[in-house]
Amino acid sequence: MNLPLPSPLHFWKSMLILLSYILSTTASGQISHGGKPLPLEITSGMRSLSDSRELFVEMPSISNEAELWRSAQEESGFKSLHFAHKFHRFLRPDNAGITFQWANMKVWRVGIRSKGAYSLNILFSSFRLPPGARVFVFNGDQTEILGSFTEENNSELNLLPVQPIGGDELIVEYQEPLDARFPGEIEIGEVNHDFRGIFRATEPRDPTQDCHPNIVCYPDDILPGSGVVGLIINGTTYCTGSLTNNTAEDGTPYLLTATHCLNNDYDAQFLTNRKYDMIAGTIVAFFHYQSPLCSTDIRGPLQMTLASADSVLISERHDISLLRFKDTPPAAYQPYYLGWDATSTPRGAFHGVHHPNGGIKKVAIEEGSLSITSFPGTKYNIEPNAHWAVNGWDTGATEGGSSGSPLLESNKRIVGTLTGGVSMCTSPRGPDQYASLSRFWNVEGSIDNPNPIHHYLDPAATQAMQLGGYQPHADNPYTRSMNFGSDEKPVETLYQSVPMFATNNAFGYAEFAEEYHSGETVLLEGVFISSPAISNMLNNEIRIRIYTGEEMPTQLIYEQPYSYSYRYYGSNNFSFASRNMNYSVENYISFDTPVSLSGTFYISYYDANGTTEGFTVFNAEPRPIGSGKVSTTWIRSSKGWERSSENIENPMNTSLLISPYVIGDKNVSVRPAVREDPEILAYYSKEVNRILIESDNELLEWELFYVSGQKIRQGRADKSINRTSLPAAQLPKGVYIVRVKTVDGTQTARKVLVQ
Hints:
By secondary structure, the protein is mainly beta.
């Protein structure tokens, strides 16, 4: 039985794609190896494989609405997030589907149908293939194909979880050579019916409530927040966990989370066998899934992941589990191992860092003190008086998906992990219950393990009750830079209904670049790019370029395709899957090799396909006069490169939300230059038949005169610009006077010859 949240608001909007690619139990996980299944119309003798009465196995009928209602009504205060109904079926070639021979292969096909499902996901409960055998999973018209899965996917656990297929039916095809070295073992043990529309969702959903501040709004939380990760568990549950330090500070990748996230909220069927190690093996963890801005929610990068863990210490009585990732987070993730406070008197303010509803990382704040409480619900047999109570959040709240998240005291050390509660953005603001580390510190006799948790977190037996955080790569930092202020508003600027920074737009702009500068040589490891929703991404072939040049982008030194997929990582293996770009998202593009740069450089994007009004990157809302920020965006048309603040159609001071990721601690953002005497130019352009006015400072006012002194026209900037123009089509040929004033008060006059 799934034990849901007490209110449907904790569930309705849910979680994620993150999920599409969910599971990786062992070394090879669900990494696929190419190839195609046989055509659907293949027949064997007189037997048609299109006979759905034999091909398909129907799951028992369930109502999505009833499942949602049941989830909302069951009395559970847990804040894990469940979104699929699990059927336990054991389908094999000897009891389901059809078998036939084709060429030199024996083939088994079985269809699975669960009416009304938004998507279906299966777990092979037995998976051991001989060399040459292949498995494919696909939808009814083979427009979506997973696989092939081969002997390389064999594992010690003899399991294989497979990512979801959209819709309410799928087909499994197993091909085995007639001369196989041994008979393959294949059995479909579980079928998951997505009743929320998120099991197949191609993005994490947003929180159901809007009071949660983004983590970047609290600079002191950013570093410890690097140790908080979003978790997908067993393909059906979304929770939160945290990397946890130990007194040896040896970088052991311990993961602390809530036990109910692993056992399906104390599901009775799960508790009959307690396969915690198997469930831990299905975990996928997402690092740095957060918005880059404070005031705007942008779905963060999905490219930094770890897959699969081992269980170390499982406590059902205290709802605390200590796991260990099979792999160590690499330096590029810049992981932070959170310290802990196991004393009985932690000091606030207390910050809960979590992924509500499977969304981007958020913060909840309790300014007051904590109290000891019991988690409600005696049927779970949870130890009484073993939880910290947050009686009412001062800022934010928690939701389904927040379970397992850490509560941090004033020194950003873990005091507990979230079990559940009733907090909402409106009312009530609490209480929420966190499993107390102090009450669990010396407890012995957890599931199949006699050791207390301090045996692992204090391996040197120092008797420490408090420990600070640990940065294993403090001597090898990576730095993300932005010209875009964290408080600035990201927009998709339109001019005459044309997106200004869309590739191949109606103005003829094909490529856009963001300027950066380093006074010393740096290594560029990759780049973060934030973009608004785009519906035609498949029609684009976006490429990222790196230029150098002191005055403008001049020398192309590196180029790489833009990847909007994410990778999941397990035992030194990676697999990729495209994310849905129909949302505001940020992607991280890791370069094949770090790029060495010094001086001024530019990061650009363009579309090699030439798709009209294609891909766009967020730009800062055009800045007002006197903003103190320099325009760092460049535009390329058929006439070459120009700075956006000097653009003839719509000049604006702005920056693109493109962020270089540099190895080392060097910030490469562009700083405004100190100007003593601003340069001001005024000249006639015969090509566009206009008088152009340019300055390296912000323009404020300008006037045009005949040489007699008679004023012809005047203008004043309403935003920060470095270039403007005046029409000359109606002016007689001759000499004119242009008088210009910049924002710093400098005034000058220039003669202009109109020919």
